[in-house]
Design brief:
The complex is a heterodimer of chains A (about 400) and B (about 90). Chain A has helices spanning about 20-30, 65-70, 70-85, 95-100, 110-120, 130-135, 140-150, 165-180, 195-205, 235-240, 265-280, 300-315, 325-330, 335-350, and strands at about 5-15, 35, 50, 100-105, 155-160, 185-190, 225-235, 250-255, 290, 320-325, 350-355, 375, 380-390, 395-400. Chain A has about 400 residues and is α/β, with parallel strands linked by helices. Classes of the chains: A alpha/beta (about 400), B mainly alpha (about 90).
């Protein structure tokens, strides 16, 4: 069994095109939520989202290649490029042959699919773009990453709604820990801002008409986000041997199913996943200083999550900090777990607690230290990141500060 | 509220929930009918289709029983707001 280091990080999101921009926004408590630009929202009940501002493929892909890659997979490749460059990997044939790529995505290339449906059902055309299937498939991110770096090792994609990227990172962590893979490139990506998908979210009545205010008494729901985040994982001893920069360690991964309801969360299920992560990490609850919450800003999640945290941590729940960075980067669905793992890693590495932005009023039912509105300096040794998906599939990752 | 409107809404609820229409009265609670929050959203969708109305999210959140559902629909059909906040708060 190896200890597992995070040696590369990459992200593109509503908070910026790089990890540096992402981290700066978290420190400043700056939200990337604003009016949706990529779709016409005039007939939707909500207007706001957390998009990658003014995204164009041109700096990243030539036009011909961009034709083959849906926006969601472009985000996966962009984040992977930054992470791999950050890790300074020296690719040997052996490494290329055995490295694992595990990505997460919820709806994959649905914008491409949506355009195809529009052609066929609305415009009455008798054909769609020939690349509709390869662009739509949720594994396109992993496939394009493998092609980008010539990686021929075990590569696949996990789709578990809002937990996709957390499940992906967890599986990659276990592969590197067990020695099944010498290196992992892992994370998630999502680009859900097409009219059809937005209509589907509207129908659930969980999207906020203004902004995302996790844990606030006046919260009115979630805000959709997009982007991608990727981590490079290696055995800690190998990382040290090659003098790699180590951002943090991943120490545990826990999962559970609620077996309760297709949309409503269960406190017991969430608690089980957190306990499983702590158990996998072999750490006591009292060692955790920060929780990056699932914190969607819905009435149901934030209440249930608070209750689950109290159940797991007991009196220690009043000593740790719990914030939701979805208040800033939105709910990026299949990318959420990766963006939030990154937030937890930066919190540990740089010694600060990301805030819960847009927070107005304390809710007695969500009475944890939610780090309202402004980040705080803090030296935390262990952090966890929660993902509690629709369908009750929960995934929790545990991280440790490097050098502690 | 007309008997005809009440009956149309009872039919929508019975069909959506797949329960016998006899169980549904204007005074029924959601608990009695086994309607949870997701069922509630489904029923509102069916009512929007049945009456060609749009029920805003804020109004949807206020609806806790069959009577509020029926009164909200009646208001929307009459061209008014479905928001029950002014009435119930």
């Amino acid at each position: 069994m190896h200890r597992v280091a995070v040696t590369g990080i990459g992200a593109i999101s509503a908070l910026g095109r790089t990890v540096e921009e992402f981290g700066r926004a978290l420190r400043q408590g700056r939200s990337g939520i604003g009016p949706i630009q990529s779709a016409d929202c005039s007939s939707l009940r909500f207007r706001n989202g957390a998009e990658v501002a003014a995204y164009d493929h041109s700096p990243y892909f030539d036009d011909k290649r961009a034709d083959f890659i849906d926006r969601f997979a472009q985000f996966a490749v962009i984040a992977a490029r930054e992470a791999v460059a950050d890790a300074g990997i020296e690719w040997s044939p052996d490494l290329r042959e055995n490295a694992a790529i595990i990505t997460g995505s919820c709806v994959g290339g649905q914008a491409t699919e949506d355009a195809g449906f529009h052609s066929v059902y609305k415009m009455g055309q008798n054909r769609v773009h020939p690349l509709t299937i390869p662009k739509t498939m949720a594994n396109a991110g992993a496939s394009h990453i493998s092609m980008e770096f010539g990686i021929t090792g075990p590569s696949y994609t996990i789709s578990t709604a809002c937990s996709s990227a957390s499940h992906a990172i967890g599986q990659a962590f276990w592969m590197v820990r067990s020695g099944a893979a010498p290196l992992g490139i892992t994370g998630g990506s999502e680009a859900p801002f097409s009219f059809g998908i937005l209509k589907a979210w509207e129908a659930l009545r969980v999207v906020s008409p203004d902004t995302c205010r996790p844990f606030s008494k006046d919260r009115t729901g979630m805000i959709l986000g997009e982007g991608g985040a990727m981590l490079v994982l290696e055995p800690l001893d190998a990382a040290r041997a090659r003098g790699a920069r180590i951002h943090a360690e991943i120490v545990g991964f826990g999962m559970s199913a609620d077996a309760c309801h297709i949309t409503q969360p269960s406190s017991a299920g969430a608690a089980r996943a957190m306990r499983a992560a702590l158990c996998d990490a072999r750490v006591m609850p009292e060692t955790i200083g920060y929780i990056n919450a699932h914190g969607t800003g819905t009435q149901a999640n934030d209440l249930t999550e608070t209750s689950a945290v109290r159940a797991v941590f007991g009196t220690h729940a009043d000593r740790l900090a719990v914030s939701s960075t979805k208040s800033m980067h939105g709910h990026a669905l299949g990318a959420a777990g990766a963006l939030e793992a990154l937030a937890a890693i930066l919190a540990l590495r740089d010694g600060f607690l990301p805030p819960t932005a847009n927070y107005n009023q304390p809710d007695p039912a969500c009475d944890l230290d939610v780090v309202p509105n402004a980040s705080r300096e803090a030296d935390i040794e262990y952090a966890i990141s929660n993902s509690f998906a629709f369908g009750g599939l929960n995934a929790v990752l545990a991280f440790r500060r490097h050098g502690s | 509220m007309s008997d005809e409107l009440i009956q149309r809404i009872r039919i929508v609820i019975a069909n959506t929930q797949r329960i016998p229409i006899e169980k549904i009265t204007i005074d029924s609670s959601f608990e009695e009918l086994g309607i949870d929050s997701m069922d509630g959203v489904n029923i509102l969708f069916a009512l929007e289709n049945e009456f060609d109305i749009t029920i805003p999210d804020e109004a949807a959140k206020q609806i806790r029983n069959v009577r509020q559902m029926m009164e909200g629909v009646e208001r929307l059909i009459a061209g008014g707001a479905a928001d029950t906040a002014a009435v119930t708060s």
